[in-house]
Known about the structure:
The protein is mostly helical. 67% of the residues lie in helices and 0% in strands.
Amino acid sequence: MKRDVQRIVLAAIIPLFLLFILYILKFLETGMDWDFTKLGVYPMEKRGVFGIFAHPLVHSSFKHLFANTIPFFFLSWCLFYFYRDIAPYIFFTIWIGCGVFTFLIGKPGWHIGASGIIYGLAFFLFFSGLLRKHVPLIAISLLITFLYGGLVWNMFPQFAKETTSWEGHLSGAITGTLCSIAFMKYGPQRPEPFADEEDIDEEDIDGEEEEASSEEETKQPY
Length: 222
């Protein structure tokens, strides 16, 4: 029980730390009357390259940041709890991959916000659970579908608002899906069927051999 509590707490540390950074930056931007928009991605232009790394840290308003806070925390926590051994690699790949794809396919303008990472995490958790065919991970896939299935529509220009970076959402979804395939053989896996029964059978065989050898020893004349 104590170990489970520790795992739950440890899985929340990185998401909480990142949210702390996001809010500190937004408070600084607002309080100092700064504008961090140019830290975002500007597709296919040199000035937008740095945004590949920095764009998730910047939000247009507190409303924008609030909207991303709970999904970002929950999905990040799921990643670091259920995929703790490979979670940093996946998170970093989604972060950078989302920025790269947005840089390549985005419409002219500054693309900012952590929405792309949210889409990347959601798609990774969904497809990874299905591909691994492991019951707890499949349960997470179904939960993601129930909670965030409606996010899919904001990946397409026909349904997204003009001010919404549907390209960033689509980029995150593509990156998360690719990660679910690339990391499929790493991290938690479905237990091999009948593995426990084989272990029990081996123990029984070993026990029978020991009994047989002891019986032979007792039958030997002195």
